[in-house]
Amino acid sequence: MAEETGNKSARDYGIGIPQKNVLYELKGANNYDWGMKDRLSRVFNPKSGKTVMLAFDHGYIMGPTSGLERIDLTILPILEHADCLMCTRGVLRTLIPPTFNKPISLRTSAGTTVLNDLNDECIGVEIEDAIRLNASMMAVMCAIGDKQFEGLTIRNLCKSIETGNRYGIPTLGVNAVGKELTRDARYLAMAARVVAENGAQVVKTYYCAEGFEQVTAACPVPIVIAGGKKLPELEALKMARSAIDQGALGVDMGRNIFQAEDPVAMIQAVRHVVHEDAKPQAAFEMYNDLKTS
């Protein structure tokens, strides 16, 4: 307790200076609770307002994917360059040192693998475990347009959002696109909007070359693009640049980083595009310089 004597009298009240009410400028997030904003500000760089997420949760449906056979050898060297790590709790607990101190987008939905029909999922990680793991987001798959599992995955999404709101943890709604669905602006805009309307604080979806600005404009929360299949490095950088120019607030890339010829160089090149507005060719030159150094 402070002493009663010997203290300086308080006098700097700033009288006449209005108190500032600082807005939280991340798209759609100004009215969230403080804890939710704090977690989102760890995922999205406060200076650029964007994020480079590194996705390596593929094993939960695919097993040891190429590039992820030994996460300790391939993923740990690139973690320092990511803004956020998207992974499963199994990998997080067994292979990711907590000293990296990176925000985690925790894969919390689980279900069928590539050996069966995909998208038959449930909430596989309860909120208590997400809290124990200090997750900054919970990632839940949502299969809009799937004739069999659309309703199921939307219910999973809503459960995550409800419990996440209770404890201040945002939900990343991950749009899954089946082989029978066309990845055009009309479908992607609908899928992203449905996920956002149900309350997801961030949406992960695919990029389309035509009309992607309509997808981002119609979505009231941040969109990050999935990297999708492996592309040549320059093509992946062009995709990231185009998505950012058309309103995406970041990327959540996996194979286009960890399957690159030099993953450490590639993630830095992607950061150059996302956070520093670099043109694809300049970022590709950076990639080659880092690769050969």
**Parts with pLDDT < 50 across at least 5 consecutive residues:** none
SSE run: HEHHEHEEEHEHEHEHEHEHHH
Read across the widest sheet, the strand sequence of neighbours is 1-2-3-6-7-8-9-10
CATH class: Alpha Beta
CATH topology: TIM Barrel
**Name of the CATH architecture:** Alpha-Beta Barrel
Mean pLDDT: 94
Q: What characteristic shape results from the CA principal axes?
A: globular
Report the sheet-strand fraction. 5-15%
Protein described:
The chain has a single domain (34-261), classed as TIM Barrel (Alpha-Beta Barrel), CATH 3.20.20.70. Helices cover 38% and strands 14% of the residues. It is built from 12 helices and 10 strands. The strands form 2 sheets. It has an 8-stranded parallel beta barrel, surrounded by 6 helices. Strands 4-5 form a two-stranded antiparallel ribbon. Helix 9 (233-245) packs parallel to helix 11, helix 9 (233-245) packs antiparallel against helix 12 and helix 11 (263-276) packs antiparallel against helix 12. The N and C termini lie far apart (58 Å).
SSE layout and pairings?
Elements: H1 34-43, E1 51-55, H2 59-62, H3 71-74, E2 84-87, H4 89-95, E3 104-107, E4 109-111, E5 121-123, H5 127-132, E6 137-142, H6 150-167, E7 171-175, H7 185-197, E8 202-205, H8 212-217, E9 223-226, H9 233-245, E10 250-253, H10 255-258, H11 263-276, H12 280-292
Helix pairs in contact: 9-11, 9-12, 11-12
